[in-house]
Design brief:
Elements: E1 2-3, E2 6-7, E3 15-17, H1 26-34, E4 39-46, H2 47-51, H3 55-60, E5 70-75, H4 79-89, E6 96-101, H5 106-109, H6 121-134, E7 139-144, H7 154-164, E8 168-172, H8 187-194, E9 202-205, H9 211-221, E10 225-228, H10 237-248, H11 257-274, H12 279-286, H13 290-293, H14 300-308, H15 313-331
Parallel strand pairs: 3-4, 3-10, 4-5, 5-6, 6-7, 7-8, 8-9, 9-10
Antiparallel strand pairs: 1-2
Helix pairs in contact: 1-11, 4-6, 6-7, 9-10, 11-12, 11-15
Length: about 325
């Protein structure tokens, strides 16, 4: 599989970290690359924020060589703004540029951005053509099956976007109306891959939450790549575990409590070094990952809650150091 100058070879499909708002920041992207993600994508970035030189938008667009291959994802409803943002992003030198046509959040959709454009495929094609022609970067698209179950047009979308020159298409196998509910309909990924007139890479997304599920989806539907989102939050080991399963047919044992503590501490260190937020904000933002970091452990809730009171990096590290003792206390019958 190839996107621009980046090529992946091997017996299994490349694994991508999905763009997730307030999750896929530079610190977490680096952790996921270290744990086996073959490429990562930034949080989605407002095209309006980029062209208006909003500091927060440009901070999200900061990337480091250690996380390559890395794509920057942009969204917006205005064609001229999206075109200009694509040109501006060239200065950051991502490996490719991704367009968000899949975000289901109402405040994005109501502006005709994200999944909102799924109601106007002609406009999607025109906007994509304008972006492809405005930048030297390879351009990819991430989208959904359609607006709702009665308007699934992903086959038509794939052909039309291929014709305007996109380098790859990522499909979250749900509609906008589905949100994140119900089972992802991977049969549509299979239909895209079985179409002899589609030659762009198809990356499947949705419900890849275990090595077994990744294996099942890949062998049933044969995507060129697989993108992992929610299952990676607080659990960057998911990439390593999937690769091990594909290569050996065996499941890796889950990370020990000590490994999880070390990963949270590394996550904290990366966030303090790479992100623009204050140390206090960094500690607060890490909380969204705790459920994942303690997933599957006995007394996970108490372990998680024991970190929630920390307000500074030093307090968080003291709480982390106390976790083994807390775990041992919980294991002793009262």
């Amino acid at each position: 599989m190839r996107i621009g100058r980046v090529e992946w070879r091997g017996i299994m499909p490349p694994l991508f970290l999905a763009p997730m708002e307030d999750v896929s920041d530079a610190a977490f992207r680096r952790l996921c690359r270290e744990m086996g993600a073959d490429a990562v994508v930034t949080e989605f970035i407002s095209s309006e924020g980029l062209i208006r030189q909003i500091e927060k938008s440009w901070q999200k667009a900061r990337i480091w060589d250690e996380e390559r291959p890395v794509a920057i994802q942009i969204f917006g409803g205005d064609i001229s703004s999206m075109r200009e943002a694509a040109r501006l992003i060239e200065r950051v030198r991502p490996d490719w540029l991704d367009i968000n046509y899949g975000c289901p959040v109402s405040k994005v959709v109501c502006k005709g951005a994200g999944a909102g454009i799924l109601r106007d495929i002609d406009r999607m094609e025109h906007l994509t053509r304008e972006i492809v022609q405005s930048t030297a970067l390879p351009v990819t698209v991430k989208t959904r099956l359609g607006w709702d179950a009665s308007s699934i047009r992903i086959m038509e979308v794939a052909h039309r976007l291929q014709a305007v020159g996109i380098a790859a298409l990522t499909v979250h196998a749900r509609t906008r109306a589905d949100g994140y509910a119900g089972d992802a309909r991977w049969e549509w990924i299979g239909r895209l891959k079985s179409d002899p007139n589609l030659h762009i890479p198809i990356i499947g997304n949705g419900d890849i939450d275990s090595p077994q599920r990744a294996w099942e989806f890949y062998h049933a539907y044969r995507p060129d790549g697989m993108m992992i989102g929610r299952a990676a939050i607080g659990y960057p080991w998911i990439f390593r575990e999937i690769k091990h399963y594909f290569l050996t047919g065996q499941l890796l044992p889950p990370p020990s409590l000590e490994e999880r503590i070390a990963m949270i501490d590394k996550h904290l260190s990366y966030a303090l070094r790479l992100l623009p937020e204050s140390p206090q904000k960094v500690v607060i933002e890490l909380r969204k990952h705790y459920a994942g970091y303690f997933k599957g452990l006995p007394y996970a809730k108490k372990l998680r809650l024991s970190l929630m009171e920390a307000r500074t990096p030093d307090e968080l590290r003291r709480s982390l150091a106390a976790l083994p003792t807390l775990s041992q206390k919980e294991a002793v019958p009262s």
